[in-house]
Each structure stands twice: as structure tokens, then as C-alpha cells.
Design brief:
The chain is built from 5 helices and 6 strands. It is globular. Helix content is about 35%, strand content about 30%. The termini are far apart.
Length: about 160
């Protein structure tokens, strides 16, 4: 049985375009090659060899996008990932620092070189390094969420 390709649903293709357009807006660079259709770009983003995650603007936002590497790193399937409050990707003692980082990205549009500890569904801790966090916005600049990407992480022995 072939697993459902949730990242090819029209709403996720649209969200992938918002992620990519917002990344370009804030950094002046492209996160992935932007050739082909929106669906081809969504598939390329999902298969990218680095983490891409995002959440919306709800009071306690749940994760609303995670590419293949993100799902593997957090040890979740799409259904579990997309129902997980974003704050739970950090341990309680690291959540205030996470909130500070998100507020800084909110104020500036993006930040890069973020470093912090995160935790998977099974309790596996890892240090994220050189992460870039950016605001996801629509064409008019209305904030729709925040996203992060990183290619460097290392696992930390549990206490």
C-alpha cells in the first residue's frame, strides 16, 4: 500500500508556495529550486535534504507543515505531527527561550543562526544549529505563521 502523499493536497501545495515565497521575501534567496509547477515544488520541498517546519498564528499553534526529514527527526507520522502544538517541540525548560526567539523573528521578519534544544515524540533530544526562522506571510504581508529550516543537528544523550 502506498502511503498518502498529504503534501500534494491542494492546501499543502498552497502552503508550500507561501513558505517558499516568504523565505524569498525575507532572505532574498530561494530555499529550493523554484522551477516547475507548484506541485513539483511542493514535492521538492517535502523531499529536501534539510528540515522545514511551520505553524500558524493560532493562540497555541499546532505544527502545520513538516517535510520528510522533519517527520523523521521528530519521529512522527503526518497525522501526529500536524496535531502537535508547536511549543511541545521544546522541553518545558526551553520554551521561554523558544518564545523569545519566535518574538525576535516576528519583529525582524526572520532570524538566522538560531541554536536550541528540541525533543522528539519519543523523548530523543537534539541540538539544532544554524536554523533560520522566518515569518510566513501572504502577498499583502499579512502574517500567517512562522517557519524554520535547518540542516545541522546533533543528538544529545538523555539525562
Amino acid at each position: 500500500m502506498t502511503p498518502k502523499k498529504w503534501w500534494m493536497e491542494s492546501s499543502k501545495i498552497i502552503w508550500a508556495q507561501l513558505l517558499l515565497d516568504s523565505f524569498r521575501r525575507w532572505t532574498g534567496r530561494d530555499l529550493i529550486e523554484r522551477s516547475g509547477t507548484a506541485g513539483e515544488q511542493a514535492a521538492r520541498l517535502f523531499a529536501a535534504p534539510f528540515v522545514v517546519v511551520s505553524h500558524g498564528t493560532e493562540p497555541d499553534p499546532a505544527l502545520n507543515y513538516g517535510n520528510r526529514i522533519a517527520l523523521e527527526l521528530w519521529e512522527m507520522d503526518w497525522e501526529t505531527f500536524s496535531s502537535t502544538p508547536s511549543r511541545l517541540t521544546a522541553e518545558p525548560e526551553n520554551r521561554a527561550e523558544r518564545e523569545r526567539m519566535l518574538a525576535e523573528a516576528q519583529a525582524q521578519g526572520f532570524i538566522d543562526n538560531y541554536r536550541g534544544v528540541r525533543i522528539s515524540r519519543t523523548g530523543r533530544r537534539f541540538l539544532v544549529e544554524e536554523a533560520l526562522v522566518w515569518n510566513v506571510v501572504d502577498e499583502s504581508g499579512k502574517k500567517l505563521g512562522q517557519a524554520a529550516t535547518f540542516a545541522r543537528w546533533s543528538f544529545i544523550e538523555n539525562r
